Task: structure prediction
Amino acid sequence: MAKKAINPTKSLKIPQIIILSAKICAFVSTKLATKFAARLFTTPIKHKVPKRELEMDNKSIQKIVHVPTINKNVVTYQYGQSERKVLLIHGWSGRGTQLFKIADELLQNDFSTVSFDAPAHGKSEGKTTIMSEFIASILEIEKQFGPFEFAIGHSLGGMSVLNAIKDGLQVNKAVIIGSGDIVQDILDDFILKLKLKKEFSDRLRLFFEDKYQLKMDDFSAYKATQKIKIPVLVIHDNDDPEVPVKAGIHIHENLQNGTLFLTDGLGHRKILGNQTVIKKTLEFIKNS
Result:
């Protein structure tokens, strides 16, 4: 019997045991529930490298890079030999080889790629991380492997690319795929999935702002785009169940030099291997 196709409109669900644990914490103490939610929010799932990514994993030169600003090490992947380099950034619970189909196409077009396992992801050390550590890793990798002509980011990696450009990453163009936008919306959605009261979304934001001494909304993608002048291609699927398409549309509306490309029926991850998406990405970065 043939396997049923995975429905791209079906969102990832939080296990019932975790939802129950969150509710018990909330019953005992709002402070306890906030800490529990914060731990969950900052703990990615480490997945085993799937077979489809093994070729990139095996053929890339891997190196451990220290990121001094966050005092963490990340594993980097140099794929290909060309001096024309493209930086690839995966999303939450992703890996440095996750954009392998895009990377393979880039190699065939005389580019090489550099990617990395973000802190607490893939082969990199640690159990928890947050977007500011993605951004710090990008900026350190630019110092050690750059310059890069282009940057391509998926999901949280897309938000991180935009923030890194705002903070000084030098690239000619950027492509973001399925990128999140407003940090508060992301927190709201997370708390909704945990089935906690909406007030915990604000509690979570304040908890992070106190812990990291950062304003969370400063990392919202649309705010970064307002300071970006280079061309940016925004790709998003109309049926993305994890990051609503309104995020991509809003990011595009705030770009000074943006292009929006919407797809249908590809969801949040399948979009990375879609040939039309890859072709659009290559055309965008190759056209001067």
User: Anything to note?
Assistant: The two ends are 49 Å apart (CA to CA). The mean pLDDT is 92. Strands lie at 61-67, 72-79, 85-89, 112-117, 150-154, 173-177, 232-237, 258-263.
